[in-house]
Amino acid sequence: MARSKKQAPNVVVVLDIGTSKIVALVAKVSHHGRMELIGMGRHPSRGLRRGVVVDIDATVDAIQHAVDAAEQMAGVTIEHAYIGIAGSHVKSYNQHSMVTVSGDEIGINDVERVVDDAVKRISIPGDQKPLHILTQEFIVDNQPGIRQPVGMAGVSLEARVHMITGAVSAVRNLTRCVENCGLKVDDVVLEQLASAEAVLLQDEKDLGVCLIDIGAGTTDVAVILQGAMHYTTVIPVGGDQVTNDIAAVLRTPIHAAEDIKRNYGCALPQLVSPDEEIEVASVGDRPARMIKRHTLVDVVEARFAEIFQLVQQELHVSGYDQAIRAGGIVLTGGSSQIEGCVELAEEIFGMPVRLGLPETKGGLSAQLQDASYATGVGLLKYASEHLDGITLVEDDDDVTETVIHARPNAREEAGMVDKMKSWFARHF
Fold first, then answer.
1. Fold equal for 91-165 and 201-355
2. Stated pTM of the model
């Protein structure tokens, strides 16, 4: 077996730690910013419930298996990684602030002051910690819609910011699981933000769009208006609840219910012939049975309708239900690929809906062009954006190659304002 190299500065690793699966992706980033997928590992997740760690040992074991598979494929020893986080513990806040410009033109210090003041105005519970601070827009002398005010003339500078927080305990437990695998955590990234970067088009972000990422344990929601993140929330219902419903109604084991969902699941009755039958395994040693597929469809439709209605309610209460009508709804996540899911969503929301698949141009494997990998691809894009500067180094085989220095990770950046100036501030 070839000797594994250490993780080079131009090699990025991400971990999508979900309720149903752990995915480890390894990519090499060229000096042109092109990513090449060189390693991938996937393992069933057994230690999380609705995005939150409930069994550290089981989670560590699953992460280790995924990392080992990615290492073997990539031929490198993984030492550090970016990780995604989700769960109903995630909260979001919008805030506005204004300062007087200190000189003849707006400088970086003015931007830092106005963002810092907006952040200080947000009161978050003691058990929450900031994950991301994103700028929505700047306003110079009552002129809104400005994305980069530095160098502009003005007397007053206003900023609208969006803060995303997560439970301290949830973040700590997730990072501890990764560290128990001998890895350093580069940064913790909210999963729907990563998914948004992977599947949304710029036109959609500009017009106003809602991303609905349907995972196994949760449904993550994000609203982007005029290119900026305005609202994020998490619905504590996902694909696992569909599987549980099938198991209960059809009286079949969980593993069989999952197979039935994947192979025959449909969220819209009119797409299924009323005469079609499927075989359903029974519990214990009882013989399998034949049932009408419509019975299954009724179960699937009811749960997906509930998910979409809960999202619709959140959008109405938050006031963003009308703002997204131009861009509509984009569905992603593994559970969004059920037949009829898009059509059911269109009926409930009354606006255009499409299935969002991650963009894999630029060296990423076509294997990742699947909605279940949206978060992983988005995390790779995040990680690649945190590489800066070019130098010449020599690898273990004494071959000189061009690599990219790693920018200090977000945990090492000083203060919340610096975190605001991260990748998301440039993309949303």
1. no
2. 0.85
